[in-house]
What we know:
This protein is mostly helical. The protein has helices at 2-6, 9-18, 22-51, 59-62, 70-81.
Amino acid sequence: MIRLFKQSKQLRHLTEFLSLTSGATQIMGVCVTVFFMTHIVASFWFFIAKLDDFNPDTWVVRKGVVDDDWKMQYLMAFYWAF
């Protein structure tokens, strides 16, 4: 999937439009990869708490975000996953 993304015409047009160097493109790729992996870990971490029916020992209950909206729950999970 990453290989296909790198070969994308839109990505080439974006790098040409922004005049990005090869190094800047690589740094951008690392940042996107870190963000994506943190998203996966945060989602999994919240999913585990949900599977446990938000037991009082889970992080969601301890941090008091059980009744918060999904955005706050995601931000908390993302913060602690990073």
